[in-house]
Amino acid sequence: MGKEVIINKIKTVAVNIRKIREFRNYTQEYLAVKLDISQNAYSKIELGYTKITLERLYQIAQILDVDLIELIKADGTNVEKFINLPSAVSA
Questions:
Q1: How much is the pTM?
Q2: Which of 8, 38, 50, 85 has the maximum number of C-beta atoms within 10 A of its C-beta?
């Protein structure tokens, strides 16, 4: 996988996170508090400026109540397809 492909995928995951957060009517501040980071640091995650760890991605999926794999797989336009699915991370 080329570097550009990876960068694009990271940005798509960031878009997925933002779209799901908005769907849930959560603010950036709410997620930041849940993650114990500043709102500015959280904003950088959604903008794709921050490289996030798998642990952080897992935490975000838990808070948003979505399946981690679906969060990664979604292409940025189809998040509605899985957003109401029961979360596999809460088990």
A1: 0.83
A2: 50
Helix orientation angle between 3-23 and 39-46, rounded to the nearest 10 degrees: 120
Q: Which two tokens stand for residue 66?
A: 């979505």
Domains identified in the chain and CATH numbers: 3-81 (1.10.260.40)
Contact 76, 12 (CB under 8 A): yes
CB 47 within 8 A of CB 13: no
What is the spatial distance between Cα 31 and Cα 67, in angstroms, rounded to a whole number? 17
Amino acid at 29: E
Predicted confidence (pLDDT) per residue in 29-59, tens digit:
999 999 999 999 999 999 989 989 999 999 9
Name the DSSP class of 76.
Answer: S
